[in-house]
Specification:
Blueprint: H1 22-31, H2 38-51, H3 60-84, H4 86-91, H5 97-100, H6 105-126, H7 132-145, H8 157-179, H9 185-201, H10 207-212, H11 218-244, H12 248-267, H13 270-289, H14 293-314
Helix pairs in contact: 2-8, 2-13, 3-6, 3-7, 7-8, 8-9, 9-11, 11-12, 12-13
């Protein structure tokens, strides 16, 4: 059974004790990669694959190795982000394993090496070694330019937005390239706009700690209400564009969440804005998953496992649709 971890922050109501055996460390080494946050990225890849004009169908083996390659890439990016943001994670009360000291430096370095090896290896086994250029581009933007100086795109409003939208476009094109084609920029535009808006909205909860550490995120520079308004406009634009494209896969998720986001803006409620963002992301994953049923099964199984892990290990009810 998992033992609980004692982390310094009690912002999320957690009070847990550091420790654990081999099983604890194994699960920690997986969840330090923030697998919950990988699903929106995988969803964008599948959306790009779905929209591509192609009859190229992959076998399950290729999909399996491709997903391992992608998740290794995403995990590597999130790991670097936690290393870079350790202080602000502590100030924001995030009970992440690096910020709490449950994972030491040598373990982090080991995971970085393993992930860096897994990405090209899995691409080769999937028969898509030619996609290494796309992988390098995604890592360059999401792993290096986003996190580290002299660029550190996350530390500026425009940089964060640019990184989000460019990253979303690369994910879509990666999915399209897998299929042997692409849907074109007009079809991709609402997804890119929605993805960029969602990235901006994720800054809301971190405003306090980011400001203390000198970050100039969208929420820090423009405040809560303007950030929510920007996300609202982005969602509305994505929904309208989706209607024009007759693409319900993107239209329904953003329009379903828009009323909640509007209410959050009118009331100045961060919780409502965060909840709307989570609903939009989850709804898009479900909409895409209707065309990839195995993906829905993975989402369901992961949700149950993650809820068990975070409750047992950290005393948290996560993932959830709560606005915190």
């Amino acid at each position: 059974m998992l033992r609980m971890i004692q982390l310094s922050s009690t912002k999320n109501g957690a009070s847990v004790t550091l420790g654990g055996g081999a099983i604890d460390r194994l699960f920690d080494s997986v969840f330090i990669l923030r697998p919950t946050l990988m699903f929106p990225l995988v969803t964008m890849v599948l959306a790009g694959h779905l929209g591509a004009v192609s009859s190229n169908h992959l076998g399950w083996e290729s999909w399996f190795f491709l997903m391992i390659a992608l998740c290794s890439l995403f995990g590597l990016g999130y790991l670097l982000n936690q290393v870079r943001d350790r202080k602000s994670d502590e100030d924001n009360g995030k009970l992440f394993l690096i910020a709490g000291g449950a994972i030491n430096r040598s373990q982090v370095v080991s995971e970085i090496v393993v992930l860096a090896v897994l990405v090209p290896l899995m691409l080769f086994l999937a028969g898509f070694e030619r996609l290494v250029v796309w992988i390098l581009l995604m890592f360059l933007i999401g792993g290096l330019l986003y996190n580290f100086t002299p660029f550190a795109l996350q530390n500026s409003p425009l940089g964060g937005l640019l990184a989000g939208m460019t990253g979303g476009w690369l994910l879509l094109r990666f999915g399209g390239t897998i299929a042997g084609g692409s849907a074109g920029l007009s079809h991709e535009a609402p997804y890119i706009i929605a993805f960029g808006s969602a990235c901006i909205l994720t800054c809301l909860l971190d405003k306090s700690g980011d400001a203390q550490n000198g970050k100039r995120t969208f929420a820090v520079v423009y405040g809560f209400r303007r950030t929510i308004l920007f996300g609202l406009i982005g969602f509305l634009l994505a929904g309208i564009w989706g209607v024009c494209n007759r693409d319900w896969v993107i239209t329904v998720p953003v329009l379903v969440s828009t009323p909640i986001l509007l209410w959050g803006w009118l009331k100045g409620s961060i919780a409502h804005a965060v909840r709307a963002n989570k609903i939009a992301i989850f709804s898009l994953s479900v909409a895409v998953g209707l065309f990839y049923p195995v993906y829905l099964v993975v989402i369901g199984l992961y949700y149950l496992f993650a809820r068990w892990y975070y409750l047992r290990r950290m005393g948290l009810h996560y993932p959830s649709f709560r606005g915190d």
